Amino acid sequence: MNSHVHTALRLAASSLPVLPLRKGKVPFGNCPACAKNACGGRANMKTPGLCTCPAPCHSWAAATTDVHVITSPAWARAWRQAAGVAYHPGGAGLTVVDLDNPAAVAWASQVLPSTQTVATTRGEHWIYRGAMRSVNAVREGVDIKSTMAYARWLGPGTGTMTALPAEVRALALKEPSVVRPAPHAITAPALAGEGECRHRTPAYLERGIAMAEQRITEARSAVHATVYRTFLAVLSTHGRCGCLTEVHIARLFTAAQAKGESPRHCTDAWTNARTRLGL
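RE: above sequence
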């Protein structure tokens, strides 16, 4: 039993739902049976458990405190490749304010009530008692991770955990700073001679977005290049007819950020793809 499993079992015993992380600080991809949510999925559900797959599928929704699952053969394969342990803060009634750089830490020190803090490679996690919805990029270098999200386990940290303050909840009420790459749906005119837009068939557009999400999710290396190429492919097919909305774009950004891409990298990749296509 490796050290990651020992850590996971210890956290689970403290009622912290855990899951393995692979290299790149991202969850393991869905198994073939669950690919494209063919199983019915659970990653978009408010609570996990609808999928009975024994593998650590569906990202945050795989998190569990069940010792039998954590030590099962299906999870053992993942643990052998794991680079770390993550947990589902919302599942434990917690919220993590992820401060991604020294400037964000300095801001939190001035604005937020003190609580348990954990050092990260670039900043700090501030952990509060109480759950809320997760929101990325509530301000520069600041993400909120609670329900439907995961956070890396980096140790117990220092300080005493305090109740989730109104200041953090208020951050989620503001518009995220970079989750949307454009203020409006793409409305570039259709190319001459194309006629009626075939993409307005909901199934056609949905299939294209779902395939793009899957391509990003299944990337095993060169994630940044994969994200850019996927954005480029989506825009080359759907970018000139006004079909793409902010909802579609946000889905692509969410998939990329789940693979470890920062909001800024997502915005840059999207902008570069549009520039290359002359959109």
